Records
---
Amino acid sequence: MAIVYNFSAGPAVMPKEVLEKVQRELLSYKNSGMSVMEISHRSSLFADIQKNAEGNLRKLMNIPDEYDVLFLQGGATLQFTMAPMNLAINKKKVDFVDTGHWAQRAIEEARLVDGIEVTQITSGADSKYTSLPEIDDSLQEDADYVHITLNNTIEGTAFKTVPTFKEVPIIGDMSSNILGQRYNVTDFGMIYAGAQKNIGPAGLTVVIIRHDLVEKSPDLPAMLSYKKLVAKNSTLNTPPVFAIYCAGLVFEWLLAQGGVDEMEKRNRKKSQLLYDYLDSSSVFQSPVAIESRSLTNIPFVTDNAELDKQFIALANDNNLVGLKGHRLVGGMRASLYNAFPIEGVEKLITVMEKFELEHKEVD
Ligand SMILES: *Cc1c(COP(=O)(O)O)cnc(C)c1O
């Protein structure tokens, strides 16, 4: 089988070693004679899987004891609703930092929650979201929390440091760079991430939330209530057992590789290689301001939609797949998540150089 480099933004590439382990264990997990998909979520076999996954995630991200870890369903998108329902309860106000598509989706969903005032305190719209908006803590209103999208998967921007907002907790959507660069969990009231980008298979959402926020949340229907989900350790109903098992294997893999700091180092190296090439190319370019650039999602363009199409076709012929840009922004996008090897970036650049030679404007 030819080596395929998968640049998909999500669901995305997983570590090969993890997939091989899944394959080895698929028919008989720990010699039980049963697949991990067939065992009860109340069995000790599964309880251990979940406990180890949580423990390893805590190790990887230095999650303190006063934070709860939840393994939920509904994707990052359900958190756009659950966060305001559970946490916008005193002032009934939420502030948003608008950094593009996913921030906008979070705003839209929060506006549908009854009795909550939603304010966009700053926006990158003026730059068409190619740079992050200025933030200082004077922006923050009297809100229950401020919502930030740490890595903007579609636009290719990311916060390197987390802004501070006086006493107001920050809720961070970390779907596309969780475990890919170092953030301090204690800078946040809550972090959430859909698993299918930088963790594992779709169907799992990780929520990391400070316990005092959980305690204060109101009485809500069980599946929408952080308090009830925490009380039942995420197994209020049947959890996504297979996705949790795979995520657990990815966490083990990450620890064996050297953890988040090592991943950040590799992700910097991979992305810098591509950015350096883009900044020197006469055919391709990055639309994103240098200081706002993401380590995990790298959009790039030629100045011509027809050329973009030709390049994507050439890339596909060279087993470089998933490079088509998001339908909202066009062009190309290379997603370089933790499991994406540097060899794939090198191959991409080789193919881009070849394309550049053929399409350079001759003057
Ligand atoms: C993909 C993505 C989402 C949506 O995730 P789902 O799990 O599909 O709901 C939300 N936020 C960001 C930053 C994303 O990249």
---
Amino acid sequence: MSVNTEAYKQLQKELGATTLVAVSKFKSAEDILALYDLGHRDFGENFVQELLIKYESLPKDICWHFIGHLQSNKVKYIVPFIHMIHGVDTLKLLNEIDKQAAKAGVTVKCLLQLHVATEDTKFGLNESELAEAIKQNHENIEVKGLMGMASFTSDEKMIKEEFGKLVNLYDRWKPLMKNFDTLSMGMSSDYKIAIAAGSNMVRIGSLLFGSR
Ligand SMILES: *Cc1c(COP(=O)(O)O)cnc(C)c1O
């Protein structure tokens, strides 16, 4: 078992009202339970197969966050139980989530992922796609806010600028939306910068569970 419970307690203090999503990809059910036993309920996973196995075997009051790149053909497997989908990065995916949510008779909380990093490898909508996604106003989707990732760099100024872009978009849309209250940004390496910029949800893995 490799959960750093000291780091967890320290983080909880430091985060205050910011929601901590403990990113447990590639980590065992035992590791997840170690945090669960400390009262933690929000866990993030990147892969559908892995999530389904964990969902089946772990307590049902865990709030599962899907934070990875979600393929449209796998949406149907997670929609019935997912707490929030962070990585909605295409309009096609948004449509598919709406369709599968209607079938399952649920409303799915989603975060629209914005592309703010310099790397082309990162996923996400651009500003006009964001406007389009919001305009579509799907019946079975509750758009809760935005998610994004900064470039993988040690250049703090650059990270700050990229998070700043997200904050600007979040602040612009928030007054126009109902239940739009979540800005998911910040990981182990950059969560301090993210919180200073205005994040209210961080996704942290390696700091809690060790490297992958
Ligand atoms: C893996 C992952 C994280 C957690 O990364 P750490 O650096 O381990 O904290 C956060 N967000 C996303 C989208 C991830 O894929």
